[in-house]
Design brief:
Elements lengths: L2 E6 L3 H13 L3 E7 L3 H7 L7 E3 L2 H6 L5 E4 L6 H10 L4 E4 L6 H14 L4 E4 L6 H11 L6 E9 L9 H20 L3 E8 L14 E7 L4 E7 L7 E8 L2 E5 L7 E3 L2 E3 L6 H4 L1 H17 L7 H20 L3 E2 L17
Parallel strand pairs: 1-2, 1-4, 2-3, 4-5, 5-6, 7-10
Antiparallel strand pairs: 7-11, 8-9, 8-15, 9-10, 11-12, 13-14
Length: about 350
Amino acid sequence: MDVRVGVIGTGIMGADHVRTLATSVSGARVTAVADIDQERARAAVAGLSGVQVHSDPMSVVQDGEVDAVLVASADSTHEKLVLSCLDAQKPVLCEKPLTPTPEGALRIIAAETSLGRRLVSVGFMRRYDPGYADVKAGLRQGVVGAPLMLHCVHRNAASRPNTPGANLITGTAVHEIDIARWLFDEEIVAVTIHRGRRSSKVVGDTPDPLLVILETESGVLVDVEVFVNAQYGYDVRCELVGESGSVSLDEPARTLLRGARSRTTGVSLDWRDRFAEAYQRELQDWVDGVVVGEQRGANAWDGYAATVVAAAGVQALKRGEPVRVHLEPRPDGYAPSSGAA
């Protein structure tokens, strides 16, 4: 029997998830969607049969023809929807952030803990990217020795005018926050944000680019260049430096063009282009986990920890000084940084 999936939110991400579930994930079938924009919802499921289109997201959670729920709606709706899924005891994959505030994530953890089951997964899809998996494998196998530093680049072609500086941390650098926790299997204890010269390409007063410095429990330093108006495309890279070597992740080269005394490769248009395979693997693993009753991927604690670190980063941006990260005690049953290997 296929897992019957309900998708809440059919904007860019939600519509992509509907398409991937329908065409590239085995054992899954989209049976319901919800969006306040009914035209957008109907467009997302055009060509699919037997899909109920709702305006009320709670109708998807309560639908008897839905076994599991994917939440891709506005950030502010995540807590209520995830709690409703827990109340209905339905597995839920929530796009990041799990909640905009640490307090909301703690409420979700408390509700899930009271059930005695792990039903919440968070959409940190980079854990499923083959490149990041290779970096983690190299770390586990000791090929670079003990880790010392992680250098990261996260660039977008352009941002919306007047994007708040906090969004560069909570919406962009949060991916590197999660990846650092996942790679090193330990928490981040401090955040520093450096403002530099602002790009002349910025429309409005967005402080772009930013340099984010993270420190882990064992003293590994992580620097993240966040540049959301880089103009030329979407570019995500990293280099893990260890005591005896380094391992780098770069843009996957689909083609190599030789000509005019040069060699060139393409650059991704956006995150969907760059991480299409990661999204497909994430959804497949989530569905496979639902079948056997296992929570897969980043869990509710991972969502909470990332939100806390991001919130510390926002404070560091405002204060212009390092900010320590304070996490509540981790409940039993949550690994320090679970997810795909």
